[in-house]
Design brief:
This protein is an alpha+beta fold. The protein is about 35% helix and about 20% strand. The protein binds aspartic acid.
């Protein structure tokens, strides 16, 4: 059966995908379906890893990363470490469409957004602040409180010795654990009835990240990539996808006639090349609307819908145990 259009997404994308599906059903394009789906997810205050109420960084400040890419042209736009804007996905799309650049970060991205008329606002409320305190108080994580405080001090006072703190308290190890538990990004991939593919990604990154930390989500070839043949995006420990160039390799395999399932599965298997592990969840779609999702963390799922379906359905992602 030939599909006219299709859409898939990870995490709480079920909040946004029905809107994306409607856009595609009415003949809209893949980029609009991706952006509008993600905006709804960014708006959801109960999704604590994307947009409004996303996990704050170590200092309690929400810094968001987002990106969007169009397959037919390989046009791309991203923002990273953006504060006080609710819809980083829309700013990323403007970076792609009207700026001469591919990525803007921090203050530069915020100035760009303001110049376009996007409204600055507080993007954390009581719920998000409570969530931050739960982590800082050690209620949700096991990092020794004194280590958390030292790392935080470091960024506030600049008079503690980072190297010592990092080593004495195995901070790297703790962050690895953190990214296994406290993670989440939304990925949406759409195929429209003109056979255009587009991918979008939005996240607040891992909880308690160092200020200025940028994950894989806005990095093309790492957490997002799209060509005219396939699109791919990641969730999980961004550092892994950056080190492995995960999504570019998935898409490249499709160009070498490897089926989308296999191409995506190999992305997870590549984790074996790294000594340190974390979690990775890859979702991909090819130009026939076939979707594949593989992960090394049991129990993860995604959503999928195409022109033969009324609503998106929840599907289990394939779990591969990586030692
Ligand atoms: N991949 C995202 C990042 O590393 C976070 C996540 O999906 O949990 O920023």
């Amino acid at each position: 059966m030939t599909l006219d259009y299709a859409i898939c997404g990870t995490r709480n994308s079920n909040i946004g995908l029905p809107t994306g599906l409607k856009i595609l059903r009415e003949g809209g394009n893949a980029l609009d379906a991706v952006e509008e789906s993600i905006k709804l997810i960014e708006n959801n205050p109960y999704d604590i890893t994307v947009g409004f109420n996303g996990f704050p960084n170590l200092l309690g400040i929400v810094e968001l990363d987002a990106s969007i890419m169009e397959g037919s042209t390989r046009n791309a736009g991203a923002v990273a470490a953006v504060k006080n804007f609710r819809h980083p996905i829309s700013i990323a799309r403007k970076v792609m469409e009207i700026s001469p650049h591919v990525m803007l970060v921090g203050e530069g991205a915020e100035r760009f957004a303001k110049a376009l008329g996007y409204q600055e606002e507080d993007i954390i409320d009581e719920l998000g602040i409570q969530n931050y305190h739960n982590i800082m108080d050690g209620k949700s994580l096991e990092m020794p409180i004194e280590a958390q405080e030292l790392v935080r001090e470091l960024f506030m006072r600049f008079d503690v010795h980072l190297k010592e703190v990092m080593e004495n308290y195995s901070i790297k190890e703790w962050y690895r654990k953190l990214s296994f538990d406290k993670h989440g990004t939304t990925n949406v991939i759409a195929l429209d009835n003109e056979s255009n593919l587009a991918v979008g990604v939005s996240t607040s990154g891992i909880a308690m990240k160092f200020p200025g930390r940028v994950g894989d989500s806005p990095i093309f070839g790492a957490g997002i990539y799209c060509s005219d043949k396939a699109g791919s995006a990641c969730t999980g420990t961004g550092e892994l996808a950056i080190r492995l160039s995960t999504t570019r390799l998935v898409v490249d395999r499709v160009h070498r006639n490897i089926a989308i399932d296999k191409a995506t599965e190999m992305g997870i298997l590549e984790l074996k090349q790294l000594k340190e592990q974390g979690v990775l969840h890859i979702i991909s779609m090819d130009k026939s609307g076939q979707c594949a999702a593989f992960t090394n963390k049991d129990g993860l799922y995604h959503y999928y819908a195409d022109s033969s379906m009324e609503d998106p359905e929840k599907r289990q992602s394939v779990f591969l145990k990586i030692q």
